[in-house]
């Protein structure tokens, strides 16, 4: 089991390879602008968000269908500010003990429980159980459009801000998580360390995006599948940029969702 200290959570030598400086619509700097007061009522005094709520609320609302709890899951896109002002996202390596997707990189998250009030509650609860991230440290901002997993779960990405990263003391659940690390969010818009694998599902073709990331401790992680698709989408919204690599074929989650919409499931 690998664990990281708070100081390691926000530093990585691999960041020096990133040359393009993108500007996200999430900002952790203090402000006196009264126009964004409605977005900051429940945020930490040193963080605020501009634009992302309207963007999500006003687009693709038809994608939100009523899905039973048995087929619903949520993951937490937990963002924090790195030492150079960049947005970083927390990821985990799933335990090799798990029966599904052992050893794969994932966002903290899991299936909805009966006691969960909503998708945000599911994502935050799972993050607490998996990596010891206290709910009091996370400010949930919004939910993104749902994705469909390979086992036909509806997975809702929940965006949250960790504005006091120094207070986060990772505690890994050894039954679920082998390692925790973080990466710059904008890497999911860049061709660097990215490759694309074309696959087939029945008569359909789709793309699997895979990103390779090396930590300051020379640990190499492969980020692919549903996790990569979710983070590409999240980065595209937050940075208001399209990926530099081609997405001429749909990814698997988009394909599954399209088929389910057609079937009226």
UniProtKB/TrEMBL annotation:
Protein name per UniProt: Nudix hydrolase domain-containing protein
Entry keywords, A to Z: Hydrolase, Magnesium, Manganese, Metal-binding
The Nudix hydrolase domain, residue ranges: 70-204
Gene Ontology biological process: acyl-CoA metabolic process; coenzyme A biosynthetic process; coenzyme A catabolic process
Organism (species): Anisodus tanguticus
Keyword Methyltransferase: no
CDD domains named in the record: NUDIX_CoAse_Nudt7
Record PROSITE patterns: NUDIX (PS51462)
Gene Ontology MF: a single term: coenzyme A diphosphatase activity
Single GO cellular component term: cytoplasm
Cofactor: Mn(2+); Mg(2+)
Domain of life: Eukaryota
Positions of transmembrane segments: none
Lineage, opening ranks: Eukaryota, Viridiplantae, Streptophyta, Embryophyta, Tracheophyta
A UniProt-annotated Pfam family: NUDIX
Gene3D superfamilies named among the record's database cross-references: Nucleoside Triphosphate Pyrophosphohydrolase
